[in-house]
Amino acid sequence: VGCIGCGICAKSCPFDAIHVEDKIAKIDYSKCLQCMICVEKCPTKAIKGNLNDRKKVTIEEDKCVGCTICKKQCKFDAIS
Fold first, then answer.
1. Span 20-28, mean pLDDT?
2. Which end of the chain is more exposed for a tag (fewer CB within 10 A), N or C?
3. What totals of helices (H) and strands (E) does the chain contain, helices first?
C-alpha cells in the first residue's frame, strides 16, 4: 500500500516540511531536516528513510502498485 493521504506524516513533522496535496504526501526537502519522524509515523510505510544514506530514496517493489505517481512527481526524471 502506498500513500493514502491520511496526513499523519504532515501532522507529525516538526519542521512543516510535509503537506498533503491531491491526497498524496509531498515533502519540501528545503525544510526537511531528516529527523525520520514521518518514517516512524506513516501507517502504510510509504515513506522510507535510510539512516546510513539519508538522501537515498528506496522503493519496495513488492509494495508497488504501479500507479506511477512517484514517476510523475520526480522532478529529476529519475524513475521509470
1. 86
2. C
3. 3, 2
